[in-house]
Design a protein that fits this description.
- The protein has about 220 residues and is α/β, with parallel strands linked by helices.
- The protein has one domain (about 1-220): Alpha/Beta hydrolase fold, catalytic domain (Rossmann fold, 3-Layer(aba) Sandwich).
- Helices cover about 35% and strands about 20% of the residues.
- The chain has 6 helices and 8 strands; from the N terminus they run βββαβααβαββαβα.
- The chain has helices at about 40-50, 75-85, 90-100, 115-125, 165-175, 200-220, and strands spanning about 1-5, 10-20, 25-30, 55, 105-115, 130-135, 155-160, 180-185.
- Strands 1-2-4-3-5-6-7-8 form an 8-stranded mixed beta sheet, sandwiched between helices.
- Helix 1 (about 40-50) links the parallel strand 3 (about 25-30) and strand 4 (about 55).
- The protein is globular.
Length: about 220
Amino acid sequence: MPVTLTAADGHRLDAYTAGPADAKRALVIVQEIFGANRHMRRVADSFAAEGYAVILPALFDRVSPGVELGYTGPDVQRGRDLRAQIDPHKTLLDVLAAAAALPAGAKRGIVGYCWGGSVAWHGATRSSAFDAAVGWYGGGVAAARDEVPRCPVQLHFGDQDASIPNADVDLIKEARPEVEVLVYPGAGHGFGCEERDSFVEADAALAHRRTLDFFGKHLGG
């Protein structure tokens, strides 16, 4: 169901919601650089099917409302250009607005993919809004590895990710030993997205199961 959120600075943005309105556990789902598109709505629906109340904020509404991109070369560049126009602090405001719209009293998690993986890290380190956080192939995590998470965090990376060197993953492990870092041999960037050429069904299923287990542990089963 579509809803409209209002961030702390007055910005209004669209969001997609799913799952039971009275859920005791809830998630903010954070998009890739391709917008709150069909794939991301499928991700949201998959968590809703597990009993979570979920909300997927349209973070590109800051600069271009209604953007939904595919995974071709031109769309990749447009997604990068749009992301570059958005202040990370304002992205966090939008994420916090989404968190505030989740059911009252629910334990709250955040899970993000690609750009959203980095945003999920910021949600864990720059706010106290969440009880657990999961990031899939977040390219900005290594640069922010000295930030201290305020909740348990799990991170997923492919060891053949051309945009996230294994050396960066090692830096994260060294800086944040309290964080669960999971690496998938042979997997590249975006291995969890069924619309990308880099999709690896077995790894995506395993990472999703691990994500559910992690949230089950920290948000309640």
